[in-house]
Known about the structure:
alpha+beta; Pnp Oxidase, Chain A; 8 helices; about 35% helix; TR_PAI2-type
Amino acid sequence: MYVPAHYRGSPEAALAVVRAGPLATLVTGADPVPFATHLPVIVPPEVEQALRDGPADLRGHRLIGHMNRANPHWRHIASGEHPSLLIFRGPDGYISPEIYGYTPAAPTWNFTAVHVRGTLRPLPAGEETLRVIHRTVRALEGRFGRRWDMRESLDYFDKIVPAVGAFELDVEEVDGMFKLSQELNEETREKTTQHFATSEHGTHRDLANEMERVNAARCPMSEREK
């Protein structure tokens, strides 16, 4: 992913996108075109602990995920290790030049995205795959669900696990793209942020929060207080 220097995010910001949007796109090479599958990918608990204790940087750690074994993509990766790309998306939104209040201007699109590259290893069927399922349920229920208790469904999980393929990915590189109007003057950035903050679209408000975070990091306190 091409990331201009002024749009590059910190490792901490990239990690936040991975945590907030665990429905990733897994891309691996194939002929004539790459495979791409949308699937849940999480940071396993021991890695979360390591990230809390040390630098909040995914490089050198691992992620886990799973997909349907009937997917041709699984048959492609099940044979062994593969160089792979995981794409995570954050909030995004279209910007009309009408927001700026001046001309000439051009429309654009603000967005956040993180590309994680590394080596994927398929995990054995059975207990190791079931462990990934349990961990994924706990993580996603804890962050996005209603604290559903899986214990009454464990027998069902045992029945469906033969149809599931799990993997882990050792993270080697992380690129974060945070295109959030950094190139604009402060007044125009504030207009654009306010546009998204008052939008009816839920992800637009998340985008406004990201823009406020980046703007706060760019401006010294004395400038923000003027």
